[in-house]
Amino acid sequence: MRLGSVEAKAKGQVGLTGRVYAMDARATGQIVATRTLQDVVVWDLVSRDVIGVVPVAPGVPILALHPKHEWVACGERDRVKLATYKGDVIREYDLDVTSSLSLKFTPSGEELLVGCTQNHLLRLEVPAAQV
Questions:
Q1: In this structure, which topology does domain 6-125 adopt according to CATH?
Q2: Which of 29, 51, 56, 88 has the most CB atoms around it within 10 Å of its CB?
C-alpha cells in the first residue's frame, strides 16, 4: 500500500484510504501514524510507504507514538494496546472500569499516560525494549 497517487506526490499531498480521527508523528517528521475506526496505519512520509497496520477494537480513536522505539499505543474501549509499527502486540493494558480518552508517552518513554473517563489519569509502565 502506498500513500497517494503520482499526481498527489508531485504536489506533496498524501492520500489516505479512510477517515483519519487521530494522528501522531515522530520528532523527525519522517514517521506518522494515522488512526481510523478499524486500525492504525504507520507510514514513512519520505517513501510514502506503509510500514505496518495495527488492527484495533472499537473505542475512542486515539494513539501515541513512542518517543524512542518503533512502537505505537492505541486506545480501545476498555484497554490500551502497545504494538510495534509492524503490528505485533507487545502488551495490552486492561482498564477495568474506565475507557481511554487520551494517550501520551512521557519524554523518556518509560510510562504511558492515559486520560480516562471517570476523571482518572493512569500512569502505565512501559516494558523495556526487547533487543
A1: Methylamine Dehydrogenase; Chain H (2.130.10)
A2: 56
Tell me the torsion sign for CA atoms 83, 48, 68, 23: negative
Amino acid at 23: M
Domain ranges of the chain: 6-125
List pLDDT tens digits, range 51-109.
999 999 999 999 999 999 999 999 998 999 999 999 999 999 999 878 999 999 999 99
Q: How far apart are CA 71 and CA 30, in angstroms?
A: 15
Rounded Cα distance, 80 and 102, in Å: 10
What distance in Å separates the CA atoms of residue 98 and residue 116, rounded to the nearest whole number?
6
Q: Which grid coordinates belong to 44?
A: 514513512
Q: Find where cell 504536489 sits.
A: 11
For 32-56, the pLDDT digits (tens) are 999 999 999 999 988 888 999 999 9
Beta carbons within 10 angstroms of residue 4's beta carbon: 15
**Residues in the chain, overall count:** 131
pTM of the model: 0.85
